[in-house]
Amino acid sequence: MREIGPVRAVLFNLLGFGLGYLYVGQIRLAFALIAGVVGLLAVAGWSRLVFEPLGVYGLGILAAGIALFVMIHCGLIAVRNRSVVAHVYNRWWFYALWVVGSFFFSEGVYWSRPVLFGFEPFRIPSSSMAPTIQRGDYIMTDTWYFDRADPQHGDLAAFRVPGDVGVKYLMRVVGLPGDRIEIRDDMLIRNGAAIDEPYVQLAGGGVGSLSNFGPVIVPAGSYFVPGDNRHNARDSRFTGSVERALLHGRVVHRWFAYDESIRWERFPQRIESAGR
After folding, report:
1. Which of 159, 17, 5, 162 is nearest to 101 (CA)?
2. Sign (positive/negative) of CA torsion 217, 219, 221, 224?
3. In this structure, what are the phi and psi dihedrals at residue 254, rounded to the nearest 5 degrees?
4. Is 145 exposed, middle or buried (0-12, 13-18, 19+ CB in 10 A)?
5. pLDDT tens track for 197-245
6. pTM
7. Is 103 found in the same domain as 11?
8. Long-range CB contacts (< 8 A, 24+ apart) of 37-41?
9. d(C-alpha 133, C-alpha 171), whole Å
10. Do 112 and 173 share a domain, yes or no?
11. Which residue from 1, 78, 151, 187 has the fewest beta carbons nearer than 10 Å?
């Protein structure tokens, strides 16, 4: 038998996911907690609940509630059972292995969300998509969208750039495969027709390729993606069209906005595609 304390039972949960349950001799509950949290993420993505702003808030509250419940539950177990059977997993080295293992497991689940659960949130660090998406906006993307539907004019798409490992960009699709794209005096001309783009911001003085570009033909299997803030975006005018395989997801909604202070007027808000 070994003595256990409620304070340690509570605090151990801060060191490692489910570690408090190990400490009080409940390894099954520790694994059940892990399975439950992964299951919650799966349900959130597979049910598409995460693609509703209020759904994100609800899931956040639920996650906080689970964490609080686990801490209290571990403490209560310690209060009711001040001594428990000593198991092989109640050793310092096992605790250390659990902390390291839970860290790498949680990191693996975190980075696998786009593939396993179909969603990924982002915080926007730049103003290249202003005014639609501004610096400090927190957005949610549907990472399975382009697996079941072709990109369309006006879609806000997150994508990867070859050689920029771990970095994703957000721009607007204005050119589909085969489209003839040019920009003349900041006006988008697609297939010979001028396109009204009410979402475009022209900040600063446009010069050179920022205000005039093309014409180019969008290659097969690729998409032309400029930023809405045309004078302050390094986009397809500089890096070329984006291949379909590099498209990561479609922006669905903004659920939070913070840049020096919370911008309450910018959330929650669904972000609909424009220019179709």
Report:
1. 17
2. negative
3. -105, 130
4. buried
5. 888 888 765 555 678 887 999 999 999 999 998 888 888 888 889 999 9
6. 0.85
7. yes
8. 37/63, 37/66, 38/109, 40/66, 41/109, 41/113, 41/116, 41/117
9. 10
10. no
11. 1
